[in-house]
C-alpha cells in the first residue's frame, strides 16, 4: 500500500520585492487509490503545491516534508521523483520541439522503468491508449505540445499518465478550457488509471464540474497557502453553491 504524505509544508519564492511566503503549513495524506480534490480561489497556492511536489527549482521549501512510502521526496532530483512514481500534469504544459510524442513516451518509460519496454506490447499499449483517448494516430508523430490545442495538450498528459503508470499523480487544472466531450474523455482516462493501477490522485481544480466525472474521496479547500477545510464530496457541492467567499477573510488581519 503506497502513501504520499505532505507534512507541515512551508514554501516561498524569491520575487523582486523579496521573499514571498506562499505555502503556510500544508498537511495532506494520500493513500494509493484515493482521489483528493484540492479546490480554491486563484492565487491561493495550488499550483505552488504542485510545482513543489514536482521539484520545480523556483519554489523554496522552508520547512516540512513530502514522503513517498517513507522516502523524502524533497531530497530527490526531478528524475528520481518520476522514477519513484510521481507524475505531474502542469497547468501550462511545455512544448518540446524536435521530440515526437512517441519518442517522448518511450524515453520517459525507459527512464522510469530502467529498461526499454518490449517493443511489441509497447506499441500496442500506446495505440490502445490513444484510441481510448480518441486521439488521432497522426498525433504520435507530432512534436510534444507544439501547436497542440488546449484540449490536445490535456489528452497528451493523460496519455502519459496511462502509459507511465505512476503511483501518484498531480493534475493541475487539467479541466480548464476543456469542452464537455473532452472533459469526459480525459476523466475516463484518469478513472481507468485508478482502476488499472491503483493510482492515487491529487486533483487541483478551480471548478466543481470535473468532479462529476472524477469522483473524489476527499475534498480540500485551499485558501491562502493552506487547507482551510476538508470533507467528502458534499463539500464540493457546497462550494458550487456558495463559492469561496466564506473562506476569504481579509489577509491583512494577523
Ligand atoms: P493558484 O494556482 O492557486 O492560482 P499559485 O500557486 O499559482 O496559485 O500562486 C500563489 C501565489 O504565489 C500568487 O500570489 C502568485 O502570484 C505567487 N507566485 C507563484 N509563483 C510565483 C513566482 N514564481 N514568482 C512570484 N510569485 C509567484
Ligand atoms: Mg492560478
Ligand atoms: Mg494554479
From TrEMBL:
Q: Identify the residues that the record assigns to the ABC transporter domain, covering every copy.
A: 4-249
InterPro entries annotated for this entry? AAA+_ATPase, ABC_transporter-like_ATP-bd, FeS-cluster_ATPase_SufC, P-loop_NTPase
The record ties this protein, via CDD domains, to: ABC_FeS_Assembly
GO molecular-function terms, A-Z = ATP binding; ATP hydrolysis activity
Concerning Pfam families, the annotation shows: ABC_tran
Record keywords: ATP-binding, Nucleotide-binding
Gene3D superfamilies referenced in this protein's UniProt entry, alphabetically: P-loop containing nucleotide triphosphate hydrolases (3.40.50.300)
Q: Where is the signal peptide?
A: none
PANTHER family on file: ABC TRANSPORTER I FAMILY MEMBER 6, CHLOROPLASTIC (PTHR43204)
Q: Which family does it belong to?
A: Belongs to the ABC transporter superfamily. Ycf16 family.
NCBIfam families, sorted: sufC (TIGR01978)
Protein name as it appears in the record:
Fe-S cluster assembly ATPase SufC
Amino acid at each position: 500500500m503506497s502513501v504520499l504524505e505532505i507534512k507541515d509544508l512551508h514554501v516561498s519564492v524569491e520575487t523582486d520585492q523579496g521573499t514571498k511566503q506562499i505555502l503556510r503549513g500544508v498537511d495532506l495524506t494520500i493513500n494509493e487509490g484515493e482521489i483528493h480534490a484540492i479546490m480554491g480561489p486563484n492565487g491561493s497556492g495550488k499550483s505552488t503545491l504542485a510545482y513543489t511536489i514536482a521539484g520545480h527549482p523556483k519554489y523554496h521549501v522552508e520547512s516540512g516534508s513530502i514522503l513517498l512510502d517513507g522516502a523524502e521526496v524533497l531530497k530527490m532530483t526531478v528524475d528520481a521523483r518520476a522514477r519513484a512514481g510521481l507524475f505531474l500534469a502542469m497547468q501550462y504544459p511545455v512544448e518540446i520541439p524536435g521530440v515526437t510524442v512517441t519518442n517522448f513516451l518511450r524515453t520517459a518509460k525507459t527512464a522510469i522503468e530502467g529498461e526499454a519496454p518490449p517493443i511489441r506490447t509497447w506499441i500496442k499499449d500506446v495505440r490502445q491508449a490513444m484510441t481510448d483517448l480518441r486521439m488521432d494516430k497522426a498525433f504520435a508523430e507530432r512534436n510534444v505540445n507544439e501547436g497542440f490545442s488546449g484540449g490536445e495538450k490535456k489528452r497528451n498528459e493523460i496519455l502519459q499518465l496511462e502509459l507511465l503508470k505512476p503511483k501518484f499523480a498531480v493534475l493541475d487544472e487539467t479541466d480548464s478550457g476543456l469542452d464537455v466531450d473532452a472533459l469526459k474523455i480525459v476523466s475516463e482516462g484518469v478513472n481507468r488509471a485508478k482502476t488499472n493501477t491503483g493510482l492515487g490522485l491529487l486533483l487541483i481544480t478551480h471548478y466543481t464540474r470535473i468532479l462529476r466525472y472524477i469522483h473524489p474521496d476527499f475534498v480540500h479547500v485551499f485558501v491562502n497557502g493552506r487547507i482551510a477545510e476538508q470533507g467528502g464530496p458534499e463539500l464540493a457541492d457546497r462550494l458550487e453553491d456558495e463559492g469561496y467567499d466564506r473562506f476569504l477573510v481579509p489577509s491583512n488581519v494577523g
